Amino acid sequence: MVRLNAQTREEYTKQIIQAIDMQNLEQFRELFFDLHPTDQVDVFNSLTKKQRDMVYQYIDANEFSEIFEELEIEKQTQYIEELPETYTTDVLNHMPDDDLVDFLGLLPEETKDFYLSKMDKEEAQEVIQLLEYEEQTAGAIMTTEFVAISSTETVQNVLEMLRKEAPAAETIYYLYVVNKQEKLVGVVSLRELIAAPLNEKIDNMMLTRIKYVETSSDQEDVARIMKKYDFLALPVVAAEKLVGIITIDDIMDVVEEETEEDFAEIVGGKGTFDENISSFSAARKRAPWIVLLLFFGMVKGGIIGVFEDTLEQYIMLAAFIPLIMDSAGNTGTQALAVVVRSFAVEGKQRTSIRKIMKREFGIGVVLGLICAVALLIIVPLMFPEGGLILAGIVGVSLILTLCVATVVGAMVPFLAEKLKLDPAVASGPFITTINDVLGLVIYFAIATRLLDYLI
Amino acid sequence: MVRLNAQTREEYTKQIIQAIDMQNLEQFRELFFDLHPTDQVDVFNSLTKKQRDMVYQYIDANEFSEIFEELEIEKQTQYIEELPETYTTDVLNHMPDDDLVDFLGLLPEETKDFYLSKMDKEEAQEVIQLLEYEEQTAGAIMTTEFVAISSTETVQNVLEMLRKEAPAAETIYYLYVVNKQEKLVGVVSLRELIAAPLNEKIDNMMLTRIKYVETSSDQEDVARIMKKYDFLALPVVAAEKLVGIITIDDIMDVVEEETEEDFAEIVGGKGTFDENISSFSAARKRAPWIVLLLFFGMVKGGIIGVFEDTLEQYIMLAAFIPLIMDSAGNTGTQALAVVVRSFAVEGKQRTSIRKIMKREFGIGVVLGLICAVALLIIVPLMFPEGGLILAGIVGVSLILTLCVATVVGAMVPFLAEKLKLDPAVASGPFITTINDVLGLVIYFAIATRLLDYLI
Fold first, then answer.
1. Does residue B51 fall inside a structural domain?
2. Are the beta carbons of A34 and A2 closer than 8 angstroms?
3. CB-nearest partner of A334 from B226, B272, B296
4. Is the distance from CB of B186 to CB of B151 less than 8 angstroms?
5. A186 and A230 share one domain
6. Shortest alpha-carbon distance between residue A106 and chain B (Å)
7. Which of A45, A81, A358, B446 would you label with B220, given CA atoms 20 to 30 Å apart?
């Protein structure tokens, strides 16, 4: 058993690189091909251009294509340019079509057509079709490399057929049963097939209650169904015809991608998670955000400016600005997070807006009351003169602010969706700004009213 | 093909409930068992206590156990109390041991022992062992229901053995090869087995470079390995002996759970995502947080109080408090999010602290400069008198604040880990508070120095 911990892994990589540098073809192949393909990719990524050029000579196009399909898309785009002329066709033909679609989809039109022209006609045709599906739909992430069988076959026949088709298919663990019109009529798992008598007809053992998605289904819905039913693959149909499957490994990526998208929107930083870019590029990506924040900051400053007279008369009102803003911002973001996650987890069968709003408003009231009580105890200790009034002002403002903030946080994503607005309007900084402004207005308006009692 | 969209699903559920209410045993069974087990669970959960009692009569213990194992743990705890006496043993024996461990692990010691005493001795023994592993480790989430084979078998032998074992095993898609000492020596996928000649020896076809985890491995590491290598299952070893496997469906849950944990920590709301609790319970869960925030707000207020004289002399300094706080809070949280996500995604092989800090500091500098330029243009337009000085004060404060905030945001999670502190100290509200306080101190300190030029 080859045990690779971080240290031996580094040692092992060094040996492989040494073999390349010494031009020791045999040793390189022996060491390299003893690795899992995913680890081969790690090693390959750590090579210099010159070393990679050696590798292209040491392994053939078919062997390389196993590595190429596992590479990240950025690396694929980089390396394909440096491949030997003879490699390209083999590499492209060999790639699973869902990965190929991801890769080609990012290229400029001309480059894409150039690579498509190098491929087998039939393969290319399939890929061109897949490229037409809208991004983030089932059609765009599915593969056409599935195993379809007929319901009239016997278990024995199917097992023999699988012997041949197993290497090319994306998965053989679910076998989809289609009729003569290519309509999906049933499903059999390989596990059931293995356990069944050899002369059993597929017809008699297949499940006919099939979960499936349409090519236009959102990838989030695909992920939800696969997670709910613990499927390893899910069939995709168009006009009832089986046109592809989506496998669990692709869905794992979708789940992570979608969660990070939600995440980035709430902390308000697109491009926050891309770690391979320089400070300068990252800053440039975040700059529009921070300038927007600056503008929002000015708006809040403007509100404070409006109440300059009030503030001038009782300067210590300024001390509670952070408290009002923090409470408004934090509870609003929490409510927002609850709603955004419930969209992601529950999909179309989600909890009703009314139920969530009621619950969040209730939370606002209870939290507000708790805070008000705490303030009534602490503030008079801090400000012996007029402290009770001050605590009253801050306390009442806080109750109102929390109620408003939870409702705004919960409502905006629903509204944005209803109005078909960019979901980014529901992102953290926007909601925080709305809530801060409302909170400050509530606070200073109440303070202005009660000022006479304070001084 | 039974096509269940939301509407027909509701209709279908109604029919099942009607069958129960009419005491139509036959119709109930026909409708109910045509559903996927996961959908049976949905229907079952929508029944009243009285209806459930009918169901217990209509289906036997073995059939019910299929439903029971799919239930959420809260529901399991509720329903098991109302099961007919004869059901309990069958239901518990039938449950996959990893699910049983999740269920029993949450019960009080006495109740747990009571249920264990009802089970088959052998099964109970296995479960007791599993219960001893620490939470969130590979040992705690693994199942012992795997298929182990010997390397001396032929493909034909293994296929015949699988015919019998397929129904009981958690997965048969990977077959783990062990030697006489039960040590893990190889792995064969069912796909390779299907494609191989029947008389081939396992020895000749098994992969010997095996990825595996120890029982004590963190579940996050398990998820990372399975995602990286696209595995459907991963073996768990203790002292080189194969003791269990972890399947992809359990890992999907782990991925979501871990991401939500990270998420909840950054928005600062444990219990935020549990939707089935009332406003009051949710508020009670969040109350310690909000009271802590209140306290933090007082600290920030205290800082402003310290600079009361400065503020009194030039009241409009208050207008930029939100801007300083927002910028500090937002950039700090972004840096924090980057680091927390990189912990989750990269695991032990993570980017070095120095590299991340350097990058984040760089981002702080660039963003600060951009903001300062924007301020130098806007502020003099807003405040014709002394606007340039004011812009200078705010601008310089902002550059310093952003640099400090990014570094604090990136550093605290590293520090917390190094010092083995509760990772909650690295959560959003704490970091925002530190950054707000630092930002306010920087701002007012600079303003106090330059006050003479302002008025």
1. yes
2. yes
3. B272
4. yes
5. yes
6. 22
7. A45
Is A294 in Cβ contact with B323 (below 8 Å)? yes
pLDDT value of residue B438 = 93
Q: How far is CA B398 from CA A11, A328, B54, B360, B405, in A?
A: 46, 23, 68, 15, 10
Compute φ and ψ for B314, nearest 5 degrees: -140, 90
Q: Give yes or no: residues A86 and A175 share one domain.
A: no
User: CB A256 to CB B256 under 8 A?
Assistant: no
Tell me the backbone φ, ψ of residue A199, rounded to 5 degrees: -95, 5
Q: CA of B280: which chain A residue's CA is closest?
A: A363
Q: How many CB atoms lie within 10 A of CB A1?
A: 13
Which residues is B186 bridged to in the sheet?
B177
Write down the pLDDT at residue A351. 64
CB contact under 8 A, A280 and B366: yes
Inter-chain contact B323–A330, Cβ cutoff 8 Å?
Answer: no
Identity at B447, one-letter amino acid code: A
pLDDT band at B347 (very low <50, low <70, confident <90, very high): low
CA torsion A180-A182-A183-A186 (nearest 10°) is: 80
Cα angle B339, B345, B346 (rounded to 5 degrees) comes to 85
Chain mean position to CA B418: 22
State pLDDT tens for residues A115-173. Answer: 999 898 988 998 999 999 998 899 999 998 899 999 999 999 999 999 888 877 888 89
CB contact under 8 A, B194 and A361: no
CATH number at residue A349: 1.10.357.20
- 3-class SS of residue A405: helix
Residue B1 pLDDT: 38
Judge whether A408 and A434 are in contact, CB under 8 Å. yes
Residue with token string 């897949």: A130
Q: CB A293 to CB B361 under 8 A?
A: no
CA distance A59 to A26: 11
Answer whether residue A268 is part of any domain.
no
Write the CA distances from B32 to B14, B26, B68, B75, integer angstroms: 11, 10, 15, 19
Range of the domain at A309: 279-454
Flag whether A260 is in a domain: no
Q: Are residues A283 and A393 both part of a single domain?
A: yes
Residues of A whose CB is below 8 A from B269 = 330, 334, 337
Count structural domains, chain A: 3
- Tell which phi-psi region holds residue B420, choosing left (phi > 0), alpha (psi between -120 and 50) or beta: left
Total Cβ atoms within 10 A of residue B227? 18
Boundary of a domain, candidates B133, B166, B198? B133
Helices of type H across A347-386:
353-382
CA distance A311 to chain B (A): 8
Which residue carries 């590979």 as its tokens? Answer: B138
Question: Does residue B165 share a domain with residue B52?
Answer: no
Of A256, A272, A363, the CB nearest to B337: A272
DSSP state of A241: E
Select from A335, B248, A58 the least CA-distant residue to A43.
Answer: A58
Q: A47: part of which helix (H) or strand (E)? A: none
Boundary of a domain, candidates B133, B163, B185:
B133
Give the Cα separation of A400 and A368 in Å (integer).
Answer: 8
Structural domain includes residue A315: yes
Nearest to B2 among A208, A259, A362 (CB): A208
A62: tokens are: 């078919």
pLDDT tens-digit profile of B170-184?
888 999 999 999 999
- Nearest CA-CA partner of B395 in B341, B324, B308: B324
Q: In sequence order, which ranges of B242-349 are alpha helices (DSSP H)? A: 248-267, 279-306, 308-313, 321-346
CATH number, position B188: 3.10.580.10
Supply A17's token pair: 């690189």
Q: What confidence category does residue A455 fall into, taking pLDDT thresholds of 50, 70 and 90?
A: low
